[in-house]
Design goal:
single chain; 193 residues; Aspartate Aminotransferase, domain 2; two-stranded antiparallel ribbon; mainly alpha
Length: 193
């Protein structure tokens, strides 16, 4: 849809398309549809009573603070708790190293803004998470599709040598998202790389 503002949009918006995820979620809202889509939990397992109790407790004890705007990085006590929790896994982090996002899509967008330049080549499993591709496309990423097995992605030496993301992930232990196969980056996968 064109508007009077269309000519003022940033160049990167010219290649943007409607979100396939958003269109799929519209379909899943229809009562006659039984969705087998990944990432949509069964509503009957939502802990609604526990959530209600937590909301009441927070509103009763910290209501004005909970409803007020807060730090961009997120609620400090939550960030402190996450930093303590990551220490259990050998990750040394302070609360200032933790950023709370409103979901994985916001996190992927922020990561892409920070790390991806137009033309950067990124290794992705085939198939891969559509939401990641949508976030990365805005910043001009190019993709190298690689097969995967139970231990994760299997990049060829040529793919690995030409992929910016591959070495940055492996050498700096940045995260990798491999939802379709249920695999995540492990020490074994990094050693394979």
């Amino acid at each position: 849809m064109s508007t009077v503002w269309t000519s003022r949009y940033a160049q990167r918006t010219k290649n943007l398309k409607s979100s396939a995820i958003r269109e799929l979620l519209k379909i899943t809202q229809k009562p006659e549809v039984i969705s087998f889509a990944g990432g949509l939990p069964a509503p009957e397992v939502f802990p609604t009573e526990r959530f209600r109790e937590a909301c009441i407790k927070v509103l009763n004890t910290q209501g004005s603070q909970a409803l007020q705007y807060g730090a961009t990085e997120g609620y400090e006590p939550l960030r402190e708790m996450i930093a303590r929790h990551t220490a259990r896994y050998g990750v040394k982090a302070k609360s200032e190293n933790v950023l709370i996002t409103s979901g994985s899509q916001q996190a992927l967008d922020l990561i892409a803004k920070l790390l991806i330049n137009p033309g950067d080549r990124i290794l992705v499993e085939a198939p891969t998470y559509l939401g990641a591709l949508q976030a990365f496309n805005v910043f001009g990423a190019e993709y190298i599709c690689v097969p995967s097995d139970d231990d994760g992605a299997q990049p060829s030496p040529k793919d690995a040598a030409t992929s910016w993301c591959y070495w940055r992930n492996a050498m700096e232990s940045r995260s990798s998202k491999t939802i379709p196969t249920g695999s995540f980056v492990t020490k074994a996968i990094i050693l394979r790389r």
